[in-house]
Each structure stands twice: as C-alpha cells, then as structure tokens.
C-alpha cells in the first residue's frame, strides 16, 4: 500500500511474522496519537454501495466486543478503492513465531494457551460471532496470556477480505465441513463447532509440532481431512496427559455433532485436565471414574477403556443389567448411608475450603510452582501464594523470601517482553528498556565490561525512581550473570593470548614482518573489546617497539 495516510491514520510499517505478504500495518491515529494495527482490503472500484454498507455494519457490530483475549476492533473506513479495519495493537510474539523457533511447546504451556482461547471463544460465540480462522499466526502471546487477532463477522463472503489463496497449513487446520469437496463458500458452514475443530488442530500442532492432517497439496489435504484420523498426541509426545489427549481427539472429530457442544464445555474439560494432571491421578482412575466433559459414549471408547483396565469395569450394558436385576432395591442415591456420607463430605469440603492455608503451606505451593520453571507457573505463583504471603503474613519469616521471588518473576517477565520487542523491532517505551537494549548489544558482542558498566549506570541513575524498579532489578540480575561469565577466561582471551605467544615466537626467530601481521590483526579485530584491553595493549606495545 503506497500511501502514507489512510483516513485519520498515519501509516508506519507492516506487521506480521512475514511482513512482505502481510496486509496489516502499524499506524497512528493522528488526532488521538494512539498506535493501532490496521488491516487493509482492496476491492475493484471500491466495492458496490451495498457491499460498503454491509462492511460498515460489520465494523459497527465488532466495535462493542470487549474481552481480554480478543484484540478490540476500533472501527473501519474507506479510502478510494481500499477499505480498512483498525484493531488494538498487541505487542508480543505470535504463537506461529514461537513454534517456528521451538518446534513445539510443552503440554503445560499449551494448556495455558488453550484455556485462554477457549474463554475467548466462549465469549465470542455467546455474542453470535464465529472467528473462522483460528491459527498460530493470529494468536499473540502477551505476557502469559494469548490474544486472538483479526476478528471478523463476515470473513468469507464479504468483498472486503483477504484475496491471498490459503496455504496447505491453513487448510489443514480447518474443519472438514469447511473444506469438503463441493463446498464453495466456507462461510455457509462456519459454526462454533468449526471454531472448536480449529482450536483442537492448534492444540495438536502446539503439543506435537505437526499438523493433524497430512498432505503436500491443498487437494490432498481436502481429501485426507474427510477420512484421515490423526495419530493421538500422546502417541507422539509421551508426557502428554491422557486427559488432554482425549480432549484434543474429541475436538478433531469429523462430525461436528461429535465434538464438545460448546466452548464452555471445552473450558470445563481443560480445567479438569489441569486438576487431574496436578493431582497426578492415574489413567485407570481416570477411565473408571469418568471424565465429565468427555463422557465415554461410543463402543470404541468402551473398548479402549476396557483394554486400559484389563477387565470389563466399563461395560455399561452389564451395569444396566445388574440394575434391572435389583429392581426392588431402593435407589442408591436415596440410601441413608449415601445421604449421611454426602452431608459429611460436603461439610468437610466446606471446612477445607474455608480454612485458610498456613504460611508454610503457601510457601510449599509457591515452591512447587517455581520449580516447574515455566512462565505460566511463575505467573501463577506470583498471583496467588506469593502475594497471599505478603498480604496475610507481612511480618512472617517467609515475607522477605516471597518478595524476592516476586521481584525475580517480574524480572523474568520484563526480560522476556523486552526480548520479544527487540526481536520484532517493536518500539522501546522508556529509558529503562533502552539502556537494557544497549547493554545487551554489548554483551552479545562479548564485551562484558561495557555491558556491566551500562547496567551499573542504570542502577545509579534510575535506582531511586519507583517507575523503573523492575528494570533496575533486572540490571542487577544481569550484572551477576555477566560478572560470573567475565570472571573466567573467555574463548576470545585464549585465542588472543595464543596469537600473542605465536607472534613472540616469530619475533624471536627474526620473522618480524609475520609477527607484525599478527599484532595488526589483533588490534583491528579486538581493539574495541574492553574485556581484552590488557592483551590488545600488549600487541600495540609490540608494534611500537618493532617499528
């Protein structure tokens, strides 16, 4: 898009993992001085009056949508033959970029992302909106939470849409009913159930690092999507919990009627996955006790459960026959023992919930989360047990420890968000981030001394300003790391020392020209590295002595 202005927006630069093919731009609303992400659509002659009215109705429908897991739509407009939608600008790394960098995610991180997306989809579906294009490149991880991008109400039939043909990967994540042979308009079949299928495909990809449907061409993927049953995630990644595996395979059912009925049901299932995984419940216990959001209903599932347990405890027909034989007995849930036992259990549960955890219990919970050493677990530790220690036990023996852990978690999050900004060339917001970026550039070039000086100057200059408390703590954290690295002899120092020894040997054999070449090369290559200054000074001294 060659123009520099689009209505009230000043266009700056392209956004996206692959800017050359992106139609999304970073822009500034001139009047409000607010950064936004603007998606631009081209239509022949600017579209018909009816299409323009329909597009305007769409953005008016999207503007009231408010959810922390969905990038807000501010509205849209028309400019000559272009139309555009302006969205909230979300800074962070896309899930697609994460997967390209790491190959796949741990099931714990995937569960965090899935819970956030399921919550967002529950809200959207309650508002009568189907996203229709859930994929890793449309999800940004900001802090520890996912945000869904590119919200549309009429994604497929509007003339104001992306005209770029879909890729094989995009088609492999779509529900079978959207890409079945003979389906000309996916919009006619796009439902909440198709969103849930795409969510399942995304979870599958994140856990396994591969797509659920094979195919080298779009035609092959379309055909395979109708019949191919994906290999279960737990068969590829052994640490994937059976409960998460079960949910993913249910989301990827070919028939929409066999998928979970709503995004709310998926949320409940994900919560149960987390609960059972944290409690370390066994597979046999899972199968025998049932999994409420994913009930065992088909004969194949009964056979799988029977195989896991080695006996017919899930033979529902046998259970029904036993009930028929005992027709004269009182219904079990009306038995006095059950009613009394249930009442006692409820009272015990209420007492357990109401009774506040001790300071030592809170510390153990925090230590368990910190030991997982994932960003989501650290955030959970900071939000609940650590903060609760400070609020309830401000003078207790663990208060100082809790504050130290909170400071460390804030530092980790600060450094992670800064690395995302630097990697994606996002704007630096304040002096603390700028100084950190400069120090990191020195450290990346092996100049630890200058990096440490930069961090120390940050502590001196910004140390008394509460606004920069986390940045200053991060500087202290980086100083400790760099001082440890600098305390040992680096590979570069070894190389330079070896070259100096080689030059001295050449000089002793009257091969002055060759020795001078080594000294010159050392000065030229390492003259700006303050860590190697004593060695480079030796090279310069030898040059001066042998002019």
TrEMBL record:
<dbReference type="GO" id="GO:0005524">
    <property type="term" value="F:ATP binding"/>
</dbReference>
<keyword id="KW-0418">Kinase</keyword>
<keyword id="KW-0472">Membrane</keyword>
<keyword id="KW-0547">Nucleotide-binding</keyword>
<keyword id="KW-0808">Transferase</keyword>
<feature type="domain" description="Protein kinase">
    <location>
        <begin position="10"/>
        <end position="271"/>
    </location>
</feature>
<dbReference type="Pfam" id="PF00069">
    <property type="entry name" value="Pkinase"/>
</dbReference>
<keyword id="KW-0067">ATP-binding</keyword>
<keyword id="KW-1133">Transmembrane helix</keyword>
<keyword id="KW-0812">Transmembrane</keyword>
<protein>
    <submittedName>
        <fullName>Serine/threonine protein kinase</fullName>
    </submittedName>
</protein>
<dbReference type="InterPro" id="IPR011009">
    <property type="entry name" value="Kinase-like_dom_sf"/>
</dbReference>
<dbReference type="GO" id="GO:0004674">
    <property type="term" value="F:protein serine/threonine kinase activity"/>
</dbReference>
<feature type="transmembrane region" description="Helical">
    <location>
        <begin position="337"/>
        <end position="355"/>
    </location>
</feature>
<dbReference type="InterPro" id="IPR000719">
    <property type="entry name" value="Prot_kinase_dom"/>
</dbReference>
<keyword id="KW-0723">Serine/threonine-protein kinase</keyword>
């Amino acid at each position: 898009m060659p123009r520099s202005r689009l209505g009230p927006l000043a266009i700056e630069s392209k956004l996206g993992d692959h800017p050359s093919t992106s139609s999304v731009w970073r822009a500034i609303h001139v009047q409000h001085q607010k950064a936004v992400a603007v998606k631009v659509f081209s239509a022949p002659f600017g579209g018909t009056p009816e299409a323009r009215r329909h597009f305007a109705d769409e953005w008016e429908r999207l503007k009231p949508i408010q959810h922390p897991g969905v990038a807000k739509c501010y509205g849209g407009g028309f400019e000559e033959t272009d139309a555009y939608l302006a969205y909230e600008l979300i800074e962070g790394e896309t899930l697609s970029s994460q997967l390209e960098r790491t190959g796949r995610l741990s099931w714990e991180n995937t569960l965090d992302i899935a819970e956030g997306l399921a919550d967002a989809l529950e809200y959207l579906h309650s508002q009568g909106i189907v996203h229709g294009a859930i994929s890793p490149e449309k999800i940004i991880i900001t802090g520890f939470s996912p945000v869904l991008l590119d919200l549309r109400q009429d994604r497929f039939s509007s003339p104001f849409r992306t005209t770029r043909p879909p890729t094989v990967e995009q088609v492999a994540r779509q529900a079978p009913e959207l890409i079945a042979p003979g389906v000309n308009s996916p919009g006619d079949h796009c439902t909440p159930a198709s969103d849930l299928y795409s969510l399942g495909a995304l979870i599958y990809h994140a856990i396994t690092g591969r797509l659920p449907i094979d195919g080298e061409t779009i035609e092959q993927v379309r055909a395979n999507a109708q019949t191919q049953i994906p290999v279960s995630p737990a068969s590829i990644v052994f640490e994937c919990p059976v409960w998460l595996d079960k949910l993913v395979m249910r989301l990827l059912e070919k028939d929409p009627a066999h998928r979970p009925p709503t995004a709310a049901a998926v949320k409940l299932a994900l919560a149960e996955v987390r609960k059972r995984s944290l409690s370390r419940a066994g597979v046999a216990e899972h199968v025998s006790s049932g999994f409420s959001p994913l009930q065992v209903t088909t004969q194949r599932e009964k056979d799988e459960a029977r195989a896991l347990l080695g006996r017919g405890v899930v033979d529902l027909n046998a259970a029904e026959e036993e009930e028929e034989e005992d027709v004269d007995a009182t219904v079990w849930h009306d038995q006095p023992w059950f009613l009394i036992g249930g009442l006692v259990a409820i009272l015990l549960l209420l007492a357990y919930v109401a009774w506040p955890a001790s300071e030592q219990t809170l510390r153990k919970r925090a230590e368990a989360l910190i030991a997982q050493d994932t960003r989501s677990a650290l955030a959970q530790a900071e939000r609940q047990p650590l903060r609760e220690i400070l609020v309830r036990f401000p003078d207790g023996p663990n208060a100082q420890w809790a504050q130290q852990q909170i400071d460390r978690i804030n530092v980790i999050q600060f450094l992670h968000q800064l690395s995302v900004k630097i990697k994606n060339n996002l704007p630096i917001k304040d002096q603390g981030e700028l100084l950190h970026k400069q120090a990191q550039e020195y450290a990346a070039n092996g100049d630890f001394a200058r990096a440490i000086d930069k961090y120390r100057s940050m502590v001196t200059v910004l140390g008394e300003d509460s606004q920069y408390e986390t940045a200053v703590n991060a500087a202290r954290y980086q100083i400790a790391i760099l001082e440890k690295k600098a305390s040992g002899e680096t590979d570069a120092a070894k190389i330079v020392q070896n070259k100096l020894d080689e030059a001295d040997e050449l000089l002793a054999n009257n091969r002055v020209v060759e020795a001078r070449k080594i000294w010159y090369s050392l000065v030229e290559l390492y003259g700006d590295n303050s860590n190697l200054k004593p060695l480079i000074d030796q090279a310069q001294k030898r040059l001066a002595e042998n002019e």
